């Protein structure tokens, strides 16, 4: 949904800047000040405030056990959120990620049950994810179809193929050493060992988005595809590779899911796509494209994860957890628009005031 | 020589283009591909297994489609205006559980009152979505993704582990989805009436046409003087009412309602609309098409069972259908664009 009824209000910050420029003091608009008050920075503050609050007031929160469980829980969302951030920044979307994870899981189960070497199983499963991504990328980038519609289709298609692959069966007897590795911790810190790999993925996408011409091109595409194409950004090719990356990372998440819960099933990770999108939007990425950052998304994912974990420690039921996620999401998008409305109101009042003088 | 060629060419050309024009209105119908697909599916299944079109078979087909059909009609109203409602499954769940609670608290309440309460409840939930979208000017995709979670959480909090079963409800209420009128299940007739009424509203009234205008170009619609926010809010209210209706019918049709009722339904409903030729970025499509799309998606399950294909293939086929639908739509729109270019070039 790159455009909705009111495309003008999606960008409160750039809209606010020109209205202020003539009257406000210039020091307010320095780069650092802007960065510190940006939408994703607010999510980071919220995360920091919450972590400090939880560590002080919730018993047993600040412990390696917490770190371990919390991080293990958020890994699938964290992984998939990385390519999703880049895709949403270009103004597109990928709803098929959870189905790709499910298909990967089903493939792993069938191949392993068929007696294949585990490393070959992992390689083929990853390849399945890449092929799914290529398929999405082909339809969206080459044929130019709308990504929302295409990925609703492949959401059903890939989940369907997972069902065809493994049916109602579940494969559970993966090698003990491997499944133990996927839940192991780095010494006394409580940080899961696989987090190292996850951090590599995060750094990869962070650098790609924020420090390369390719990444700057993605922001440009989010503002205007035509303008981006005009200044020489290869729009279709960029989109294609994003979907391939999304497929590959979704496959990694599927592999992680399977080995963490020691169960390959066709319905693994179902519904995860909406959780990922909620976390990305909470992290300050605009659904219209053109705005967002990896640190913000990181904070968004961890904020939802740690809130959920804290509520669970406080024996609050799952009931409240989803409500809190939903309210956070709505609040995070409604608040800036209310803020810009107030700024607009103050601006017009000041203008009237000046005119009266 | 040259003129002879020309004179031979032109009469050749005229009739063929005239024949095309005569068939064009039918061929241009966006519902046509999905109608053909549905017919082929039903005929092929019938040829393989004649039991498929027995009285009971047809009744099951229609019953299965009813609820998705009503939801797809509501969703179409929104998609046409470039909005979307991801929270329909949660709305349906809340209303369905509400219906169960009402009957548990007041077993003697008239059934019609339950329908009114259910639809009013749906309107309230739809209003939450609509007001957030139109007042805060935030995209519907984000707002309704949020309310998807919020409504589901409310349902969890309300229902907890409790479930209401068919036995808790009056027999007359359950009979709505068992009894038939002229061979059609009563709740399906309700859906058909809804489809026809909304279709007439969309094609025959000014507010209905306004929805298309809003979806085609919101800025132009505003400039033209259409009250965009008001229309969009009304579309959300209507969608809420229809989701409420579907929730009450769900309680009548299915054995149990609880905290998870309706989970994941949003994507099926949007898929039905997309397969039925409703363009995902607004401006075109029809509720009739969406209803046919819903019928097609739900019929696939029964067909696969009837021709003894593994039921596991069902979802994959649904996916292929959605992709086929948007590719057909793309090809058709490219052709229209080309035709427009040619006719405009002639005018110059």
UniProtKB/TrEMBL annotation, chain B:
Subunit structure: The complex is composed of two ATP-binding proteins (LsrA), two transmembrane proteins (LsrC and LsrD) and a solute-binding protein (LsrB).
PANTHER family to which the protein is assigned, alphabetical: ABC TRANSPORTER PERMEASE PROTEIN YPHD-RELATED-RELATED, AUTOINDUCER 2 IMPORT SYSTEM PERMEASE PROTEIN LSRC
Keywords for the protein's UniProt record, in alphabetical order: Cell inner membrane, Cell membrane, Membrane, Transmembrane, Transmembrane helix, Transport
InterPro entries: ABC_transp_permease
Organism annotation: Arthrobacter alpinus
Family annotation (CDD domains): TM_PBP1_transp_AraH_like (cd06579)
Keyword Transport: yes
Cited function: Part of the ABC transporter complex LsrABCD involved in autoinducer 2 (AI-2) import. Probably responsible for the translocation of the substrate across the membrane.
Name the record gives this protein: Autoinducer 2 import system permease protein LsrC
Topology versus the membrane: Multi-pass membrane protein
GO MF term (any one): transmembrane transporter activity
Subcellular location: Cell membrane
TM stretches of this protein: 34-55, 61-79, 86-105, 111-133, 140-161, 181-202, 232-252, 264-282, 289-306, 312-332
Cellular component terms (Gene Ontology): plasma membrane
């Amino acid at each position: 949904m790159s455009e909705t009824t009111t495309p003008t209000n999606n960008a409160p910050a750039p809209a606010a800047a020109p209205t202020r420029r003539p009257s406000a003091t210039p020091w307010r608009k320095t780069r650092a000040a802007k960065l510190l008050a940006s939408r994703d920075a607010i999510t980071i503050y919220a995360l920091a405030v919450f972590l400090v609050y939880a560590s002080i007031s919730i018993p047993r929160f600040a412990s390696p056990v917490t770190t371990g469980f919390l991080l293990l829980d958020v890994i699938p969302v964290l992984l998939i959120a990385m390519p999703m951030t880049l895709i949403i920044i270009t103004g597109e979307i990928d709803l098929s990620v959870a189905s790709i994870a499910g298909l990967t899981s089903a493939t792993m189960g069938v191949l392993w049950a068929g007696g294949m070497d585990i490393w070959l199983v992992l390689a083929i499963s990853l390849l399945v994810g890449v092929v799914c991504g290529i398929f999405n990328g082909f339809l969206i980038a080459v044929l130019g179809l709308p990504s929302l519609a295409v990925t609703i289709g492949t959401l059903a298609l890939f989940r369907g193929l997972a069902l065809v692959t493994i049916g109602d069966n579940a494969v559970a007897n993966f090698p003990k050493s491997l499944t133990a590795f996927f839940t192991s911790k780095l010494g006394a810190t409580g940080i899961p060992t696989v987090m190292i790999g996850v951090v590599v993925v995060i750094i990869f996408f962070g650098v790609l988005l924020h420090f390369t011409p390719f990444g700057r091109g993605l922001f440009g595409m989010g503002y205007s595809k035509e303008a981006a194409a005009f200044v020489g950004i290869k729009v279709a090719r960029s989109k294609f590779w994003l979907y391939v990356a999304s497929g590959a990372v979704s496959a990694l998440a599927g592999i992680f899911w399977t080995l963490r819960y020691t169960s390959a099933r066709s319905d693994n990770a179902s519904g995860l796509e909406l959780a990922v999108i909620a976390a990305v939007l909470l992290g300050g990425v605009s659904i219209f494209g053109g705005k967002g950052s990896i640190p913000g998304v990181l904070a968004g994912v961890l904020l939802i994860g740690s809130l959920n974990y804290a509520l669970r420690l406080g024996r609050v039921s799952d009931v409240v957890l989803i409500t809190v996620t939903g309210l956070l999401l709505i609040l995070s998008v409604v608040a800036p628009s209310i803020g810009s409305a107030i700024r607009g109101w103050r601006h017009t009042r000041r203008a009237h005031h000046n005119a009266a003088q | 020589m040259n003129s002879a060629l020309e004179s031979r060419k032109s009469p050749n050309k005229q009739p063929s283009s005239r024949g095309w024009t005569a068939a064009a209105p039918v061929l241009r119908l966006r519902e046509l591909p999905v109608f053909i697909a549905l017919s082929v599916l039903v005929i092929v299944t019938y040829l393989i297994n004649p039991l498929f079109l027995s009285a009971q078979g047809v009744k099951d087909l229609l019953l299965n489609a009813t609820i998705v059909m009503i939801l797809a009609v509501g969703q179409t109203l929104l998609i046409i205006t470039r909005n979307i409602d991801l929270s329909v499954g949660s709305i349906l769940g809340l209303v369905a559980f509400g219906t169960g609670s009402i009957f548990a608290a007041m077993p003697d309440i008239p059934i019609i009152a339950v329908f009114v309460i259910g639809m009013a409840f749906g309107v309230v939930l739809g209003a939450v979505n609509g007001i957030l979208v139109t007042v805060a000017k935030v995209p519907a995709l984000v707002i309704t993704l949020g309310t998807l979670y919020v409504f589901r959480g409310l349902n969890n909090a309300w229902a907890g582990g409790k479930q209401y079963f068919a036995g808790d409800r009056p027999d007359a209420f359950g009979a709505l989805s068992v009894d038939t009128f002229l061979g059609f299940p009563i709740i399906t007739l309700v859906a058909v009436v809804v489809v026809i009424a909304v279709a007439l509203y969309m094609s025959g009234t000014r507010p209905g046409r306004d929805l298309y205008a809003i979806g085609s170009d919101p800025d132009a619609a505003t400039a033209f003087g259409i009250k965009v926010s008001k229309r969009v809010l009304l579309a959300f209210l209507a969608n809420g009412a229809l989701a409420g209706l579907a929730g009450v019918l769900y309680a009548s049709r299915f054995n149990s309602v609880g905290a998870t009722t309706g989970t994941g339904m949003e994507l099926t409903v949007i898929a039905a609309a997309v397969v039925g030729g409703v363009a995902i970025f607004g401006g075109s499509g029809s509720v009739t098409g969406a209803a046919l799309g819903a019928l097609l998606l739900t019929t696939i399950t029964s067909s696969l069972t009837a021709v003894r294909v593994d039921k596991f293939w069902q979802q994959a086929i649904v996916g292929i259908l959605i992709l086929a639908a948007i590719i057909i739509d793309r090809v058709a729109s490219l052709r229209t664009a080309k035709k427009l270019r040619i006719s405009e070039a002639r005018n110059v």
